[in-house]
Structure formats: structure tokens, C-alpha cells
Amino acid sequence: MSGTKPDILWAPHQVDRFVVCDSELSLYHVESTVNSELKAGSLRLSEDSAATLLSINSDTPYMKCVAWYLNYDPECLLAVGQANGRVVLTSLGQDHNSKFKDLIGKEFVPKHARQCNTLAWNPLDSNWLAAGLDKHRADFSVLIWDICSKYTPDIVPMEKVKLSAGETETTLLVTKPLYELGQNDACLSLCWLPRDQKLLLAGMHRNLAIFDLRNTSQKMFVNTKAVQGVTVDPYFHDRVASFYEGQVAIWDLRKFEKPVLTLTEQPKPLTKVAWCPTRTGLLATLTRDSNIIRLYDMQHTPTPIGDETEPTIIERSVQPCDNYIASFAWHPTSQNRMIVVTPNRTMSDFTVFERISLAWSPITSLMWACGRHLYECTEEENDNSLEKDIATKMRLRALSRYGLDTEQVWRNHILAGNEDPQLKSLWYTLHFMKQYTEDMDQKSPGNKGSLVYAGIKSIVKSSLGMVESSRHNWSGLDKQSDTQNLNEERILALQLCGWIKKGTDVDVGPFLNSLVQEGEWERAAAVALFNLDIRRAIQILNEGASSEKGDLNLNVVAMALSGYTDEKNSLWREMCSTLRLQLNNPYLCVMFAFLTSETGSYDGVLYENKVAVRDRVAFACKFLSDTQLNRYIEKLTNEMKEAGNLEGILLTGLTKDGVDLMESYVDRTGDVQTASYCMLQGSPLDVLKDERVQYWIENYRNLLDAWRFWHKRAEFDIHRSKLDPSSKPLAQVFVSCNFCGKSISYSCSTVPHQGRGFSQYGVSGSPTKSKVTSCPGCRKPLPRCALCLINMGTPVSSCPGGTKSDEKVDLSKDKKLAQFNNWFTWCHNCRHGGHAGHMLSWFR
């Protein structure tokens, strides 16, 4: 514009065109250059867009403001406000529509010449154009013109006049506007309110005024200095922004007394503010002599009624180019896109990228939002190489009721998917501990039941110095080997390892049969060999080789095993010591390590990490002395604790050491589900009160809540209360007395385990049916049943009018505490009620 910095406007309905306004109007066409080269004469706007000059209009000098016609037809009609107050309609390019051809060149002239500051097209009635002018003491500053006024000559008189010298055409001058507003004042900015065609917001000299064209004599206004650049939020029509110098004020038209928000004051005066047309609540501001555009994202958060807290503002800055910015314009349809122009008419196409916000749902779905787009990250279903996340595993296990089987405890590993050998070892260990604890409690209550849950480490320590070694014959060989006599503690350790069943008979036969049925031929042969039965070991290997899923190489191993000799310098021993490490199966390897080892030195068996811990511990119990066994168990326990290996629960039991081991396991895997169920299985009270155990339990409960597994969480709480009575919550709902407000069953809630329950109020299964008809606290009478007229708290039959024999039903048979028929029931409105059984029968 003449003598000022250039301004820029996007076409309202042609998304690929914009105009630059300074001393002349220049129309540009934007096109993509992603897959094409830059054309000759085009201006580079960004890496993937360029602008081509289409036309120039220099017929309107002394421009002060420009507004693009909002309707589709005609496309390139612009209103230009001049320094003398005139408003001229002009066009960029040829318009072949004869209906609107006579609009081009039309002028709207005020009575007194002064500068036109702002123009605004009515968004609802496209023929109305509002112009804001400087102050004149005898004239109005807000004029509303009808560009099609020639079709109503009696309302707006027109006259044809000659143009100035040098012009050969005639034009139409309109001198009388439709409406005149704001007398003896100056209008600095204008905008129409989209909610009504007749409402106009004007930034006057000292106030913001809302004019209603239906009654022009009245206006609603507020005194403020922030009167420049008024603009309405396109997504929230009651929110308006305006500025004064370096400060932006946000107004709510429903509460127009003061700004609802004042943005941080800028050190330099503002030149432009504009709402983003494609983004809710995003306001852009530009200051003088700056290459920075500040963005204010106004987030609305729910606030309590009556609380006048300001909305949350997220402020950020963007730098579209290196030079100072003269003006900018948001693209009308492309999201967060703007074009900026510098004082020397250099232009840049720029997109404001939204902050990417990630959201990880409790069911492990990853989503992120960028602008209007919402993206979800999904895993390929055919990709089985990636292990499932522990959260996914725990969620699937919770659906299968994992950990809740308290009768057949070993079945929990099947509910977990039967994929993790450590979980299988853990639940078999807990199953054996529960089984032998119950067996011991039946034989001698309070004797050694608690020792079982203390683990093999504590069991072994309790038997130090009580075991002597002896020589036992091999089955199938004319040979003897040194083994340890099995006392009660070592037998218990073997039982926990699963080698022998409960009872006094030390027989591994049933265990071998179960291994053979599961197809674990190598393990069964190794256990048979460790029990000095080499003939049974060879037999098992032959069976394995002849089975459908067996390995034919087992016949070769059986053949090598049958050639065993006790001679230390034999070729058999030398070859087995050398070649055993080449065997793939660890059980086959330890078999030959055992046969070739020296008496009392079994490191090749005890420290083979691929062999199950329970088998190595059982082997140690049979062949190591007390000192060696204690030292080995201590060392193995420390290794299990450091590694967080669940097989080590066999050694530590559910003790403090077990909590340390489980802590390492949770740190390694994050499986708080297994940790919670395991610690609840049989831990003593001091272990359950450990902060770590409580932390795992509460985190698992929170997980179930986050997954919305309300019923699963309730099942877990019930399971927890059965195994840990101290965790049972107190009653949260109770019937209170109308007079004193105390619970009528307060005694049973305050002393839950002292035998004083609901029986004293006539609601237990006692055949004596003792009753109470008054509050235990204040002794005031309880309400009467509206049907039987008997005081509440008296046990009665289910139906009113029953015979006395009906009322003497024996409640002790298969009845639970507080039968539902005797529950208190009442209406929430009138407070009348009675026995639940009577209410049900009445409304049937």
C-alpha cells in the first residue's frame, strides 16, 4: 500500500491464489513443485511450492485497506479503501459474467473525505460492505454500503458524473450508505459477528462497540484501549481478539464487561492478529520489525461453577523466514498453513506443525495425534518373532483367571500359557509346599508346616550334623556308591523337588513314569541314573528312541551307557569325559559327568545351569554331605536371587530371601502379577507386610482397574482376603440409626473376629433366632415393617400372613449370614419400608 508495508490476502474460495497489496494489487497462483522443476518467472515459496504472477492492478492508488469479496461469484472482486475515504470495487483479471460486470469500478463516497481504515464484507449477506473511517465532527465513521444498490434506486440515489481528465469512461458513484453509525468518533477496525447478519463489532477510538442494525440508536460498548485488529474466532463466535500496542485482549461477548484473558505484552507494537481458520483456538500475532510469529493455543479445561480461572494458554513461536515480516495470512483450508511477505515483497509458504502428542493405552495400543489426524501403531499379525510385552501377557493371563486356582495350584502355569519353564517350576513348587504343609498339619498341628514355606535352604540348615554317608548298591551293576542316608528333612526336600511322593516310601518310580508320559526321556533317564538304577535308565532311553517323537540317537547313548566301567583308567571313561560336552541335551551330558566323576566331586552335575534347579538340588540332597550341601545351597540361592530366577523359590521359600529374589524378577520382567499371587500363596504375615510386596499388589490392582477389569480386580481382592485376612476391608455400607446415627451392627464391625456378629440382631443362622428391636447405641426402637408391623431386626418368614410354623423354619441348614429376607429395605423418598422378603412378595 502507498507508503506502507505490503499486506497479503488468500482468496476465500480459490485455495491456490493470493494477492499482495502495497502500491498495486498483484495476483499470484501457487502450484506444487514436488515432482516438477521450477518454471521460468516463478517465485520459490518453499521446498515444494512456487508462485506465478497472474495479473497486476494499479488502477487504485492511495490504498489503505483491501477486502476480498466472500462469495464465489464473482471470483476476483476486491474492495479497496483509499486515503480519501472512498471505497472502490476492482477486479484482478477478466470477469466475463455480465451480471456483475457493472460492479467493477463502482465507488462509494462518504460525505466528508478522510482516511478509510478498515473494510469488512458481511459473511451472511455478501452484498453488504462495512467501512471504518477516521473521525469527523459532522459525519459518521462507520458506513455500511450495499454494492448492488443500483437495483433499488429509490433507497440509494445515484448520479452519473464525468471522471477526471484523462479518463474516458464513466462510473457510478454511490453517496448514501444503507446505515451510518458511530457519529463524531473514529473507527479503527471492524468485523461482522457470524451469529447474526445485523450485528457489527467495531473498534472505535476509545471503546469496543457492538452495533445492532435493527436498532441503530442503541449500542453495547466497553471502554478499552484495545480497539485495533478486532477479529472473531471462526470456531467460537463469542470469542473476539483485539490489540493495543504490544498487548492482546481476548473478549467473550457473553460477558463483555472486561477481557477474559490478556496475553503477555510484547516489547514492540503489534501489527496484526489473526485466528487460524483450520484450527480451534489458535491465534497468531505479529510485532513490528520482527521475523517471529507468536502462536497462542487456547485450551479449554472444565472448571468448577463460579470459578473465573483463565483458560490454559500454550504459547510458542515460529520463524517462517530470516527477514523481517511485513504481514501474514492463514490459508483458508490447508491446515495450519500460512504465507508471509517481507517489506521487499519476498514471500514464503510456511506450515505450522503441531506438537505430536503420544498416548499409550493400558491395552498397549500406541496412538499419536498430529493436527487433525489420529494415528494408531499396530503390530503385524504374522510377525511372531517379537516377544509379547509383559503387560500384554499379564492382561491375557488375567482373562484366563491365572493365579486364582488355589486347589490345584500347579495348574496356574497352564493358565499362564505353559510357555515359561520358570513359571512352571514356581507353581509346581508352590503346589508341593501347599500339599506337604497340609499333610504335616494333619499329622502334627503346628509342628513343621511353616518350615515347608521357608524353602529348602531353611530345611537343610535344620538338619546339619544329622546325616551320615553310606554305600548303596547299583541296580543292574555289581557295584556300590557312596550316598547320604535320607533323614526326614532330606526326604522333605526331595518331596519339594518332586522326585518322590508324600509318604515314607522313597521311590522315584511314579516321578519317572510321569516324565516318560510327558516325553522327557533324557531327564527321566538322568533321574533314574542318579538313583543308581542304570538298567532303568537304559530302558527309558530305548523307549525314547523307539517312540514317534523320540530321537534315534538315544539308542547310541544307551549303548554307550551300557558299557560303563568303574576302572579309572579305562578307555570308556576317557572317551566319555572328552565327548560328553558335545552332547546337545544337558541331561545326557550330566549323566556321563556323574559316571566319570570322582567320589564326592560332582561339579559337572551341580553347576550345569541348563539342568533344572530342582533336579540339581535333589541330586545334592542324595550325594553331598551336610557341609557340602549347606555350602552348595547357599551359593545357589545367591545366584538365583541375583538372576531373579523363579526356580530359586524352591530354595528361598516365601521368606525375606524370597522377596529379594522376587524383587530381582520384577525388576527384570515387570511381572507384578506373578509376584502378587506368589507372595499371597503362603507367606507369613511379616513378609506380606513388606513394602515391596504391598507395592506389587497395589500396582497389580491398579493395572486391573486401568484395563477396566472390575470383576477380575474384585476376584483378586476376594482371593487376597482369603489368603491374607488382615487385608480384608472394613464394612463401608451399613444401616444407621435415625436418632444417633450409629450403625445398628457396630459391634460386629468393630470386633469382627470375637464371635459377635449379626446373630444378636436376629439375622444369623441360629435356630434360637435371638432378636433385637432397638438401636444398640441409643436404645431407641427400630422402625417397624410396613407390612407385618414387627420391629426391624426380628427374623420373620418370607411372606406376610404366614403361620407360626412357617416362622419357625430352621435357618441353620445351608443358610448364610444375614438372610436376604430379613434385610432392611426402605424407599428413598418416603423412608417407609420393611423386611426385604415382605417387600418382594408385596410387589409381585
UniProtKB/TrEMBL annotation:
Any single GO CC term annotated in Swiss-Prot or TrEMBL for this entry: lysosomal membrane
Domain GATOR2 complex protein MIO zinc-ribbon like, chain residue ranges per copy: 737-843
Assigned protein family: Belongs to the WD repeat mio family.
Family annotation (SMART domains): WD40
PANTHER family: GATOR COMPLEX PROTEIN MIOS, WD40 DOMAIN-CONTAINING PROTEIN MIO FAMILY MEMBER
Biological process (GO), any one: cellular response to amino acid starvation
Name the record gives this protein: GATOR2 complex protein MIOS
Underlying gene: MIOS
Function: As a component of the GATOR2 complex, functions as an activator of the amino acid-sensing branch of the mTORC1 signaling pathway. The GATOR2 complex indirectly activates mTORC1 through the inhibition of the GATOR1 subcomplex. GATOR2 probably acts as an E3 ubiquitin-protein ligase toward GATOR1. In the presence of abundant amino acids, the GATOR2 complex mediates ubiquitination of the NPRL2 core component of the GATOR1 complex, leading to GATOR1 inactivation. In the absence of amino acids, GATOR2 is inhibited, activating the GATOR1 complex.
Subunit field text: Component of the GATOR2 subcomplex, composed of MIOS, SEC13, SEH1L, WDR24 and WDR59. The GATOR2 complex interacts with CASTOR1 and CASTOR2; the interaction is negatively regulated by arginine. CASTOR1 and CASTOR2 convey leucine availability via direct interaction with MIOS. The GATOR2 complex interacts with SESN1, SESN2 and SESN3; the interaction is negatively regulated by amino acids.
Keywords assigned: Lysosome, Membrane, Metal-binding, Repeat, WD repeat, Zinc, Zinc-finger
InterPro entries: MIOS/Sea4, MIOS_a-sol, WD40/YVTN_repeat-like_dom_sf, WD40_repeat_dom_sf, WD40_rpt, Zn_ribbon_mio
